[in-house]
Every structure is written in structure tokens, then in C-alpha cells.
Write a structure and sequence with these properties.
The structure is a single chain. The chain has 553 residues and is an alpha/beta fold. The protein has three domains: 129 residues, PAS domain (Beta-Lactamase, 2-Layer Sandwich); 155 residues, 2-Layer Sandwich (Alpha-Beta Plaits); 252 residues, TIM Barrel, CATH 3.20.20. The protein is built from 19 helices and 22 strands. The strands form four sheets. The chain has an eight-stranded mixed beta barrel with strand order 13-14-16-17-18-19-20-21, surrounded by five helices. Strand 16, helix 13 and strand 17 form a beta-alpha-beta unit. Helix 11 crosses helix 12. The mean pLDDT is 89. It binds ligand C2E and calcium ion (CA) (2 copies). The site of one calcium ion has 4 residues, from loops.
């Protein structure tokens, strides 16, 4: 580019009028240092000065201390002829004395002798363009999309590490949403402070952060993941409150021909695989992950065959529930099992969501209810106070005939309604709170009890309880897993017990496996316990032999 000063000026005017952003020029950046800035930029960041050479110093003063080094480093490497391009996101103080994120891109031009003659660039105020996340102050998902697309256009090698906080809702649940927001902010700031200059972090939806790494090194993402998760595995204190969290992480390196939508799909599938494999770890994306989809389609077909074949392959198992104080048998939970020739036993954690994806949950759900009521009929003869807990998917509640169906089943069996407990998993999909409330009421009017299952893992458990009161709350087993080391989990259980007892709700704790865990929970005034320590799910015949021949566990 060989332009006269006049040409440069008119070019500059044309750019300023046609581009969305602040265009800046610096002629002879290493000698005369003639800087041209648009008046809007000068005003917005209070840069006015009689001496154009002062612009740089003023600008540097406006930059956030934590970002200055990164900024200077990037400039230096451009002038050292390492790169012609400069592209950086950093925070700057505007005239309202607020931090705003800006993205600055610049290009350095040389004359034939290799002397820099023109630095031209453009500054985008990201805050103004709705690209900032207001909770964490980080860039948001729109900025992520743009940045990734840009890198792809420039054909730069990039990798994305997606971090999802495991069970973040516990924090919202135990404290408040506002506190949850503060935790997100703290985590965002921490992640940012651990990043090298080739990486930037974005707040995605909810409890998710994406880290975009340009020119990633071998194992770089995994090292970063370990650094972050190690930092949070110990309890943290914020505003006088304690919390800890674990992360699930998936990493994907973009391949040639990938589109942004491919990236989103791969990250979504990948993070689900990490969650299904027990959360709290890091995986590099593998193409096989996409085959989960194929297995899913095949399982759906096989499940349908089973149902049409008179529920062949389906069976109920029963797990004992005991009184927390005396450890005497209270009843059992009916748990569905399914196996097929091709895949053998398939976990309910895998096949139930498949049934729920289709209408199959309706017929299987009815079958479960009928079988469990029938078993209960036989067992109450031996043990009259026996209660049978039956899982009912929230989707079954949408069937207007379901309440009537339960009624008929119990009438036919001739047992008391009090012997049946309907367990419903609270779920973020329960959007129709009114419907839930009505169904709960009609179940309770008949005389059955309602248990809210997996309490603490769902969307807004305490809130939901207020809207649709239950008789029993079942605290999910993940709260027992670290109970010996983790005071967060035990305080969660204590708070839930206390709140529930105040309004006359009983509490059952699931997942107690070891005597040491039992010792920790024994002072928590729980009502019932269900866990491997007292018995695993067994086939009906075994359950009868083990627990009902004598009546005690
Ligand atoms: P859930 O209703 O929370 O059932 C309790 C699960 O915790 C069962 O897993 C049980 O085996 C397991 N469990 C009980 N005590 C312990 C323990 O001490 N340690 C450990 N590690 N696990 C323990 P399972 O049988 O794999 O069932 C998984 C889920 O599948 C159930 O969770 C429930 O959501 C769903 N499910 C099972 N049967 C049915 C059904 O008939 N209908 C519906 N809609 N869902 C069902
Ligand atoms: Ca259950
Ligand atoms: Ca449960």
C-alpha cells in the first residue's frame, strides 16, 4: 500500500462512515507518531489531548491493570515483526467510569525497506453490542459465536474446552440465586486469571463456560481443566458462605470443514457423555460419542418390540426402605429392569429417558404400577404395614386417565391406599405447576402418599414443594457420596430435614452404603433410609425370602 497523506485521510473518512466501530490510524508508528482517532472514541474514553503522542499513554491508563501486560505483549510482538495482525479483547474504563470490554484489531503496514508506515485498526465496544454477560462481566455466547467464526475464517487452529459446573443448582438451592450469581462471577474471574494469552473465556448459558484456545498445544486443555477443577474441589468461602463445586469438561479441536453448528452439536453430545459417565471429569471428544445416537435408535426399536411382546424383558426389582431410628422394614421401592438379547441388561438410567422421549412411558408406566400393586397385595398379607413405593414419570401425569387408572388398580387388588406411595421425580420440565398440584391433590385425596424423588438435583426443589406439597421428600444419593468429607452436603440434608419437618413432611435419604455414612446421618433426624447398606434391589422372590419371611432387615 502506497498512499499519500491526503489519500489516507479520505480513506479514513470513508472507513469511519461505513464501519460499525471506532476506526483508528497511526501514521509512522515508530517515528512521527501521528495518530488519528474518531471524536466519538476520544469522547467515550476521555482521551482528549493536545499531543497525539499522549494518546497511547492515556489509552494505556484506561486499560484494566490485569489486561495491560497482555496488551503490551501483543503490541510488542507485532512490532517485533512476529505478527502483522493484532487482535485482542481487553477491558477499558469508559467516561462513566465503568469497565467495558473492547475488541481491538489492528494491522501493521511496512514500506519497501521494512519500516512500519501505517498502523490501522478498528475498536469494537463489546458492551455496547450486547456481547457482555451482565452477571459475570465476561463475554457472552454471542461473542463466542463470532470469535469462533472469525477464527475459522482465518483458518487458525482452534480448540474449545466446554466446562459445565456439576449440580450447580445445589448452590442456588441452599443459598439464593443472587449468591449463585456471585459464585458464577467468582468462577469466571478465576478461570480468566488462569488463561494464557492464546485463550479466552466466555459465559455460555446457565452454568457453562467455554474456553476458546487458539493454536492449542498438546494436552493444554486437559491441564487447564485440572488446574480449575483442583482449585474448586476444596471448599471455598464467599461472602461468609461456603461452597464447593466440580466440573464436567469436554474438549474439541475444530477440523477442516467444520461449521459453527458442528461445534455446538459436538460439544452438546460430548458434555452429555461426560455427565452420563459420572460427571466431574474431562474427556476429549471422540467420534464414537456420536454413535450413542445410533445405539439409542436401536434401543428404541427393541423397547417397542418388548412392549408389543407382552412386556417381555421387563421386570420389577424391589429395594427395602427402613425406618431411620429402628431400622425396621417399612416397605420397598419398585425399580424397573429391562434386558434384551443384543445388549443384555440395560440400566434404567439409560432406557427410562428413552421411554420418556416417546409415548412408551405411558404403557410401561401403567404396567409397572399394576405389577407393583399386585406384589404389594401379596406382601401386605404377611406384613400389613408394608408400603410399596412406585415411580411415576411426570409425563404420566399428563394423561387425564392416569389418576382413574391408579384408582382402578388398587380397587381391583383390594388393598388400602395408604400402602402405596407414588414417587415423582421433580424435573425442570414440570412447567405446568397447576397440573402437578391438581394431580398431587387427587392422589392424596384417594389416600395414597406422594414422595418427591431425587430432591436437590432438580430445578427448584424447595420452590416446587411450596406449590405442590408432598408427604415425603427423598433426598438424592449424591448428597451421601461425600458426606464424610463434605460439610456442604450434610448441611444441605440438615436444612431440608428441618424445613420439611416444620411443615409435616417426612424425609427419606437414599444411597446410604457404608456404616460410616450411617453414623454421620444418624443424628440428622431422618425418617427413612434406603441404601445398599440395608439392601440392594432384588427380584421379588429374593426380596420375599430376605425380608418378609422374618419381617426385619
Ligand atoms: P430412583 O428412583 O432415584 O431410584 C433409586 C436408585 O438408586 C436405584 O437405581 C437404586 O438401585 C439406587 N440406589 C439405591 N440405594 C443405593 C445406594 O446405596 N448406592 C447406590 N449407588 N445406588 C443406590 P436404579 O434402579 O438404577 O434406578 C435408576 C432410576 O431409574 C431411578 O432412580 C428412577 O428414576 C428410574 N426408574 C427406575 N424404575 C422406574 C420406574 O418404574 N418408572 C420410572 N418412571 N422410573 C424408574
Ligand atoms: Ca424413586
Ligand atoms: Ca431417587
Amino acid at each position: 500500500m502506497d498512499m499519500s497523506n491526503q489519500e489516507i485521510d479520505s480513506f479514513y473518512q470513508a472507513m469511519c462512515n461505513s464501519v460499525d466501530g471506532y476506526v483508528f490510524l497511526c501514521k509512522h508508528p515508530t517515528s512521527d507518531y501521528e495518530v488519528i482517532l474518531p471524536p466519538e472514541l476520544v469522547k467515550e474514553f476521555e482521551l482528549s489531548s493536545e499531543y497525539p503522542t499522549r494518546y497511547f499513554d492515556l489509552w494505556l491508563e484506561r486499560i484494566h491493570v490485569e489486561d495491560r501486560e497482555k496488551y503490551i505483549g501483543a503490541l510488542e510482538s507485532m512490532f517485533d515483526n512476529k505478527t502483522k495482525m493484532f487482535c485482542l479483547q481487553y477491558r477499558v474504563l469508559n467516561r462513566e467510569k465503568k469497565w467495558t470490554w473492547i475488541e481491538s484489531r489492528a494491522f501493521l503496514n511496512y514500506d519497501e525497506n521494512g519500516v512500519p508506515i501505517l498502523l490501522a485498526g478498528i475498536i469494537h465496544d463489546l458492551g455496547k453490542q450486547n456481547r457482555l454477560d451482565h452477571i459475570t462481566g465476561l463475554l457472552n455466547k454471542y461473542a463466542f459465536r463470532e470469535a469462533t467464526k472469525q477464527k475459522m475464517k482465518e483458518k487458525l487452529p482452534v480448540g474449545v474446552l466446554l466446562l459445565n459446573i456439576d449440580d450447580f443448582r445445589h448452590i442456588n438451592e441452599l443459598y439464593t440465586q443472587t449468591f449463585g450469581d456471585s459464585v458464577l462471577r467468582a468462577i469466571g474471574t478465576y478461570i480468566q486469571s488462569r488463561l494464557d494469552s492464546n485463550a479466552s473465556v466466555y459465559r455460555m448459558d446457565g452454568d457453562e463456560f467455554a474456553i476458546l484456545i487458539t493454536n492449542p498445544q498438546e494436552e493444554e486443555a486437559e491441564r487447564l481443566f485440572k488446574k480449575i477443577s483442583n482449585h474448586y474441589k476444596n471448599q471455598k468461602e464467599l461472602q461468609g458462605k461456603r461452597y464447593y463445586c466440580t466440573f464436567s469438561g469436554i474438549y474439541y479441536e475444530m477440523e477442516e470443514g467444520n461449521t459453527y453448528d458442528d461445534l455446538v452439536r459436538v460439544l452438546k453430545v460430548g458434555i452429555n457423555v461426560v455427565k452420563r459417565k459420572g460427571k466431574n471429569h474431562f474427556l476429549r471428544f471422540e467420534p464414537e460419542f456420536l454413535q450413542y445416537k445410533e445405539r439409542e435408535l436401536e434401543l428404541l426399536e427393541l423397547l417397542r418390540n418388548s412392549i408389543e411382546n407382552d412386556f417381555k424383558g421387563f421386570e420389577l426389582n424391589f429395594q427395602p426402605q427402613v425406618y431411620a431410628d429402628s431400622k425396621i422394614l417399612k416397605g420397598a421401592e419398585a425399580l424397573l429392569r429391562w434386558s434384551c438379547e443384543k445388549y443384555g441388561k440395560v440400566s434404567p438410567v439409560e432406557f427410562i429417558p428413552l421411554l420418556e422421549k416417546t409415548d412408551m412411558i405411558q404403557s410401561v408406566g401403567k404396567w409397572v404400577f399394576q405389577q407393583a400393586v399386585e406384589m404389594c397385595r401379596r406382601w401386605v398379607c404377611l406384613y400389613p404395614q408394608f408400603s410399596m413405593s412406585i415411580n411415576v414419570s411426570y409425563l404420566q401425569l399428563f394423561d387425564p386417565q392416569f389418576v382413574e387408572f391408579m384408582h382402578t388398580c388398587i380397587e381391583k387388588a383390594g388393598i388400602h391406599y395408604q400402602n402405596i406411595i407414588v414417587e415423582i421425580t421433580e424435573s425442570k420440565f414440570i412447567s405446568d405447576k397447576e397440573l402437578l398440584k391438581r394431580v398431587f391433590e387427587s392422589i392424596r385425596e384417594m389416600g395414597m402418599k406422594v414422595a418427591m424423588d431425587d430432591f436437590g438435583t432438580g430445578y427448584s426443589s424447595l420452590g416446587l414443594l411450596k406449590e405442590a406439597p408432598a408427604d415425603i421428600v427423598k433426598i438424592d444419593k449424591i448428597f451421601v457420596r461425600n458426606i464424610k468429607e463434605n460439610s456442604f452436603d450434610s448441611s444441605f440434608i440438615r436444612v431440608v430435614v428441618e424445613l420439611c419437618h416444620k411443615v409435616g413432611i417426612k424425609v427419606c435419604l437414599e444411597g446410604v452404603e457404608e456404616t460410616e455414612e450411617m453414623e454421620v446421618v444418624s443424628e440428622m433426624e431422618l425418617d427413612f433410609i434406603q441404601g445398599y447398606l440395608y439392601g440392594k434391589p432384588e427380584r421379588a422372590e429374593t426380596f420375599y425370602q430376605m425380608y418378609l419371611n422374618h419381617g426385619t432387615v
